[in-house]
C-alpha cells in the first residue's frame, strides 16, 4: 500500500518529488526517509525544532478528552468549510491525534496529510484514518508539500505560517482555522494559572493571515456545559499548562482548587480563508 498523500509531499532537503519504496520515501537526489515503525514519515528538514511538539502525556490527555465528545460540535462547521471542489489533499497542520482530519477525510473521500512535530501525536494520527499520511515536520520550517498541492488546509489550535500555507494551498482551495475566543475555557483560569498560547488572540490571527488570505466566513461555536473535576484535569493536561506544572503538581492544583463539577464555557471561531492572489 502506498503512503497516503505521497504525491503531494516533497523532500525537505531539496524540494524534489518523493516516491514510495519499501517503507521509505525518497527523492531523485537520493535523500531517503524511513517510515517509523508506527507508520509516520519523518520529513524533518535542517534547523527544524521538534521540541514544541506535544509530549506523551499531553497527547494521551488530548486523546482521552476528544473521545469524550465535548468538541464534537466543531466537526460540522469544519466539514462544511472543507467542502470544496479544488483538487489536492486535505492537509492538517498541527494535526495532533488526527481527530478533525479523519472526520474530513471520512466525509469528503479525500486523501489527507497530517503534519505535526510530535511523534507521540503522529503515532495516533497514523491510525486515525486509512487515507491519512502522518508526517513529522516543523510547521515553521517550510512545509514538505509541493506548491498548490492542498485543496484544504486545516489549522486547529495550532501554529500557522501564512506564507508557506499560501504556497501549498491550491488557488481554489480553503484554509480552515479554529481559534479560541477570549472566554474559551472560562472559568478554569480562576482556579489554575493557565498559560495562554499566542494564537488565543483574534487580532494575532488576523495579523498573521491577512497578508495572504481573505476571510470568507466566520462561524462561532459557543456553549456551556457541566464538567467534572477529572475532565478539568484532562483539559489542563493536554494544553500548554501541562508543561508548566509537573504531573503531580497539576493533579494537586486541580484537586485543591476545583469544585466537583463546574460549568465550562466552550467558545471558538471556525474561520474559512481564501488565498489572496498575490
Ligand atoms: C493544541 S494542539 C492541537 C492538536 C489538534 N489540532 C487538535 O486540536 O486536536 C497543537 C498541536 O500542534 C503541534 N505543534 C506544536 N508546534 C508545532 C510545530 N512547530 N510544527 C508542527 N506542529 C506543531 C503539537 O504537537 C500539537 O499536536
Ligand atoms: Zn531530496
UniProtKB/TrEMBL annotation:
Q: What is this protein called?
A: RNA methyltransferase
The uppermost taxa in this organism's lineage are: Bacteria, Bacillati, Actinomycetota, Actinomycetes, Glycomycetales
Q: Where is the Methyltransferase domain?
A: 91-173
Note the superkingdom of the native organism: Bacteria
Give the originating organism: Salininema proteolyticum
* Domain named 23S rRNA (guanine(745)-N(1))-methyltransferase N-terminal: residues: 10-44
* This protein's UniProt keywords: Methyltransferase, Transferase
Would you kindly state one Gene Ontology biological process term found in this protein's UniProt entry?
methylation
A molecular function (GO) held by this record is:
methyltransferase activity
Q: Which InterPro entries match?
A: Methyltransf_25 (IPR041698), Methyltransf_Superfamily (IPR050508), RlmA_N (IPR048647), rRNA_m1G-MeTrfase_A_prd (IPR016718), SAM-dependent_MTases_sf (IPR029063)
Write down a Pfam family by its short name: Zn_ribbon_RlmA
Amino acid at each position: 500500500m502506498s503512503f497516503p498523500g505521497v504525491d503531494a509531499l516533497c523532500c525537505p532537503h531539496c524540494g524534489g518529488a518523493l516516491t514510495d519504496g519499501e517503507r521509505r520515501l525518497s527523492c531523485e537526489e537520493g535523500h531517503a526517509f524511513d517510515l517509523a515503525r508506527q507508520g509516520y514519515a519523518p520529513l524533518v528538514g535542517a534547523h527544524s525544532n521538534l521540541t514544541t511538539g506535544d509530549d506523551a502525556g499531553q497527547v494521551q490527555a488530548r486523546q482521552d478528552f476528544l473521545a469524550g465528545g465535548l468538541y464534537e460540535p466543531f466537526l460540522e462547521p469544519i466539514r462544511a468549510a472543507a467542502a470544496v471542489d479544488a483538487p489536492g489533499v486535505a492537509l492538517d497542520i498541527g494535526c495532533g491525534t488526527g481527530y478533525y482530519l479523519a472526520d474530513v477525510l471520512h466525509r469528503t473521500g479525500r486523501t489527507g496529510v497530517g503534519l505535526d512535530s510530535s511523534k507521540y501525536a503522529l503515532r495516533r494520527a497514523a491510525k486515525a484514518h486509512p487515507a491519512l499520511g502522518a508526517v513529522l515536520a516543523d510547521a515553521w520550517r517550510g512545509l514538505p508539500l509541493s506548491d498548490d498541492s492542498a485543496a484544504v488546509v486545516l489549522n486547529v489550535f495550532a501554529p500557522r505560517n501564512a506564507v508557506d500555507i499560501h504556497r501549498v494551498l491550491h488557488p481554489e482551495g480553503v484554509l480552515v482555522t479554529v481559534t479560541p475566543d477570549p472566554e474559551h475555557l472560562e472559568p478554569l483560569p480562576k482556579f489554575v494559572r493557565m498559560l495562554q498560547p499566542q494564537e488565543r488572540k483574534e487580532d494575532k490571527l488576523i495579523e498573521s493571515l491577512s497578508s495572504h488570505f481573505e476571510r470568507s466566513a466566520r462561524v462561532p461555536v459557543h456553549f456551556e456545559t457541566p464538567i467534572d473535576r477529572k475532565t478539568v484535569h484532562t483539559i489542563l493536561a493536554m494544553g500548554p499548562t501541562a508543561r508548566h506544572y509537573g504531573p503531580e503538581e497539576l493533579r494537586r492544583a486541580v484537586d485543591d482548587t476545583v469544585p466537583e463539577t463546574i460549568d465550562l464555557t466552550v467558545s471558538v471561531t471556525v474561520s474559512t480563508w481564501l488565498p489572496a492572489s498575490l
